[in-house]
Amino acid sequence: xxCKEQIGKLVFPIFYHVExxxxxxQIRSFGEALADHERNADHEEGRRKIEKRRATLTMVAGIxxxxxxxx
Length: 71
What we know:
The protein has a two-stranded parallel ribbon with strand order 1-2. The chain has one domain (2-68): Rossmann fold (3-Layer(aba) Sandwich). It contains four helices and two strands, in the order H-E-H-H-H-E. It starts with a helix and ends with a strand. The longest helix has 18 residues, at 44-61. It is mostly helical. Helix 3 packs antiparallel against helix 4. 3% of the residues are buried. Residues 1-69 form the TIR domain. It holds the Pfam family TIR. One of its GO terms (biological process) is signal transduction. InterPro entries: TIR_dom, Toll_tir_struct_dom_sf. This is TIR domain-containing protein.
């Protein structure tokens, strides 16, 4: 997302076996996996990285992309 914002690169999200809504709102199995990952982070830096990933995934899920359902 940094390249998209800073130098205008294109981003093409591909949602493979996950609904974009679940990524955007971080719910269901996707949200549970992120929460587990966050709980297992063993230090503050790891938790900060996960928070950055959460924010980035929310932004990416708001971009129109391809949803590969059952393919």
